[in-house]
Amino acid sequence: MHMADALVSPVVGGTMWAVSAGALAYSSRKLSSTSTSGNAIPLMGVLGAFVFAAQMINFTIPGTGSSGHIGGGLLLSILLGPHAAMITMTSVLSIQALFFADGGLLALGANIFNLGFVPAFLAYPLVYRPLAGTTRNRPRLVAASITAAVLSLEFGAFLVALQTFFSGVTALPLPGFLLLMLPIHLGIGLVEGAVTAGLLLFVASSRPELLNSQVTPHMRKRGLVASVLIATVLVAGAISMMASSHPDGLEWSIEKLTGTTEIAGQESAAHRSLSKTQEKTSVLPDYGFRFHSAHTLVQKLQTPVAGLMGSAAVLLAGFGAGMLFRRKDRRAGQGGSH
pTM for this structure? Predict the structure, then answer.
């Protein structure tokens, strides 16, 4: 559900940039003001890398000719808390847009809001937490995961249609777009909910303290970090090659309305400028090599190489953010000691 720049006008794109930047600044302040922020950093890095890798695995939606992938925002919110999740998802989406041309730069603010803010600050606190409760009740955890994932995806799909409509740069009709986007993302949400529930059940049996969304200084992270890193390498380097080739839910909806996944819209100077910037920054556009090769092995290596490089970039971004938070923590501690 990554929006392309062709769907978004400069006004809507700029507005969503401002809104997402405000949410990100708020999250950064909240996270840096907590005494345990430094302890969250290793988990932010590795979980962000895992989500990046997991988003590369498109699964087929039976009977539709479409595919979907998990968003990961809800999972991050449950394991890290909403503020750390917002920062982590921003790093994932920014790296996807800059280095892999997955989602537009003008649309990046909208994508951060739809895939980061919605699960972190709406689906997690308003749906998941009340349903899951504070007990270790497994049926409630599963029900909460699926319900929150479905509502998060449905509201995100609704926002995509609404942002496209208010942009007015395409001829996509709002009623028809919604009639396609909402049902297909219902299927995607059900799969994401089931995957999220399965991962949480594993965490509940191995690291139950993580389900409190409170990363404490005494939490044993080394084994968990290693486990998530191994899973990330397997997903990015091997399982990603089995991803479905069907168009995702957004592309499928556009194709059903227009007959093609290519979006014909009004192109502004901002569109052209950001498109040129993205061409320069994307080292592996569409998760493939810039050069063309007919060699079968080279073609097969494109996806795992992109997955591993992207996961490593998100991991480094997480640790970079961690160093920033640690410096803030130290300054706050020094200021409080005088």
Answer: 0.90
